[in-house]
Amino acid sequence: MTRAAADASPRIATGGYRASLEHLMTGLTRWAPRMTASDITRQLTRWIDDDEVQWVVEQVPGGGDRIIEQALEEYTNFTPSIASNASDAVSVMRIVLMQQIDVAWWSRSPGFADDVAVNTSLDLLDLRPMRATGQVRFGFGIGSDRLGRRARDFTVQRLWPEREPRGAGLSCQLARPELIAVLNEMADRLALAAPAGTPRLWVNSIVRSVVHQRRLRTLGFTALLPSAHCQGWAADVELAWFERFGAREMLRDVLLDYSDSGVLNVIDEGRAWHVCLAPHAVARYSMSSISAVPTARTR
Predict the structure, then answer these.
(1) Distance between CA 170 and CA 163 in Å, rounded?
(2) pLDDT, tens digit (0-9, with 9 covering 90-100), for 105-136
(3) How far is Cα 217 from Cα 225, in angstroms, rounded to an integer?
């Protein structure tokens, strides 16, 4: 590792990682159909040794060996499905490798093991009363296993697709105040840039327990572990739905601006994009104007 890589700030280091990764993925996209698993392993091993990659590798538990193992496992076991965020094996590998920035940032932060841990956490705020008082400026649906609620969501999404995008809604309506603050800021920026009549920023997922993440994985979703969702520092933002309002590119530009500034790790996952708040940006958003306090929840 070079001295420059060792001394790089997290923002500069992750920027170099992203650039190196894009170079790797350009080659893999072209040659992967004709490459064996051994060929791809050699490409990943060579890439891991790039100086630009070293800061992330050193922060991830298990280092380069674990990164290669997970990337290769997801690549070789990829099965196309409606639930998957990835369209092919190369794109799922790209998601895995981009997600290592999240892991590097938050590997020392404890996750929420199960739904009880989520629902009893004093670090999370309830989005529903905050939305009612205008403290949440982005949209979200509420997931439910109840037949009536699911029938309502299906009807709305089928008859009035401009009202809200397709999807089950948030399985957990709780979030860290810092993440709420950055999502509010993103919503404000989209509102300024998008054409008149564009709906608010729409969030598909925020907090998930490790148990729920594993459940999603069995259903075919690209639900990786470890995950910043399970630590409360990540969200999935709807992108494809905004095409109907002529606002998709505006939202894309907003998200990429946060990525370029080092505030968020942003991953293109197709219909929705994954965002993760950087640790060095937490203090900035903890000083936001959000004044809500944790709301009593069923224990």
Answers:
(1) 16
(2) 999 999 999 999 999 999 999 999 999 999 99
(3) 10
Q: State both tokens at 254.
A: 């907003």
Taking the C-alpha atoms of residue 53 and residue 1, their distance in angstroms, rounded to an integer, is 9
Selection from 184, 181, 187, 282 nearest residue 228 by Cα: 282
The rounded distance, in Å, linking the Cα atoms of 154 and 151 is 5
- Residue type, position 50, single letter: D
Spatial distance between the Cα atoms of 255 and 249, rounded to a whole number of angstroms: 10
- Indicate if the alpha-carbon torsion angle 245, 190, 19, 280 is positive or negative: negative
Fill in the DSSP letter of residue 202: B
Angle between helix 63-76 and 89-106 (nearest 10): 150
The upper half-sphere exposure of residue 238, i.e. CA atoms within 13 Å in the direction of its Cβ, equals: 25
Distance CA 57, CA 60 (A): 5
To which residue do tokens 């790209």 refer? Answer: 94
User: Can you give the pTM of this predicted structure?
Assistant: 0.87
Angle between helices 63-76 and 37-48 (to 10 degrees): 150
pLDDT tens sequence across 29-61: 888 878 888 999 999 999 999 999 999 999 999
- Give the pair of three-digit tokens for residue 7: 């001394």
Residue 98 CB-half CA count within 13 A: 23
